[in-house]
Design goal:
single chain; mainly alpha; two-stranded antiparallel sheet; 2 strands; globular
Length: 260
């Protein structure tokens, strides 16, 4: 019953997300599922290290996942009327490298614009504070469009542009160092905890963080979106559901299989 409800909720979410104008949610799904599946595979098989042949298999699956992602990305474009506007090659170049070209043009144009500290990086946090009645400047909804050549424009610049304009050149290094150290601590804690004490809520949170890390080559999604109201609500709902079903599974006479 639980499995049926899980797949039903996933299907509903996927369909509703597909009907929107954006398709970056696919990256979130791919990263999230890959992290959870990879960790559970290592834990269930008691794998500590990989042989070279195993690494090659992982790389092969990784490239297959990328190819499948772009194929699904293109197919979903028909639903949002975006596929067909540009050729498949232009689409591949635009979505895989446009942010780097835009960053290359944005760095020389950098100048302090009087923004509030971290207004772009902490957009989600400041939005949450404003929702709670704490007034904080929070006006940078979208970045300016940049001409990247061949008549194409973009407003994604990797995460580095956001850190540069929010914190300055030195702040870029400090921010990246803090992110690297923080995610390293999370990974270390994940690997050290035994299988029996690893709670699904922790793995869920870790996967969300790694999604933001994986998106750094495209745009800032870690600091900007992690503390949004929607993410906080989603995390709370997930945590409550996991606690409810885990407690039910531990009750005397409960069937363990129903909680899987």
């Amino acid at each position: 019953m639980v499995i049926t409800l899980d797949f039903a909720s996933i299907a509903i979410f996927f369909i509703s997300s597909s009907m929107g104008t954006g398709r970056t949610f696919l990256i979130k799904w791919v990263v999230f599922v890959a992290i959870v599946a990879f960790y559970l595979y290592m834990v269930n098989n008691a794998i500590i290290s990989f042989r070279f042949s195993s690494v090659l298999k992982i790389l092969f699956l990784f490239f297959c996942a990328i190819a499948a992602y772009f194929l699904l990305f293109q197919l979903l474009g028909y639903l949002t009327m975006k596929t067909g506007v540009m050729s498949g090659t232009d689409m591949l170049y635009s979505y895989s490298g446009a942010s780097l070209i835009a960053l290359d043009k944005a760095v020389p144009a950098y100048a302090y614009d009087g923004r509030f500290f971290g207004e772009e990086s902490f957009f989600g946090l400041y939005h949450t504070l404003n929702t709670l009645g704490i007034s904080v400047p929070n006006n940078i909804f979208h970045l300016p469009m940049m001409d990247i050549g061949n008549g194409m424009q973009t407003n994604i610049y990797t995460s580095l542009r956001t850190y540069l304009y929010d914190f300055g050149p030195v702040g870029v290094a400090i921010t990246q160092a803090c992110i690297g150290y923080g995610t390293g601590l999370l990974y270390g804690a994940l690997r050290k905890r035994p299988r029996t004490s690893m709670h699904p809520i922790y793995l869920f949170f870790y996967s969300l963080v790694i999604y933001g890390l994986a998106m750094q080559g495209i745009e800032e999604m870690l600091l900007r979106d992690l503390l949004t109201v929607s993410n906080i609500i989603s995390f709370i709902v997930f945590a409550v559901l996991v606690l409810m079903f885990s407690n039910h599974a531990n009750e005397p006479g409960a069937t363990v299989g129903c909680a899987k």
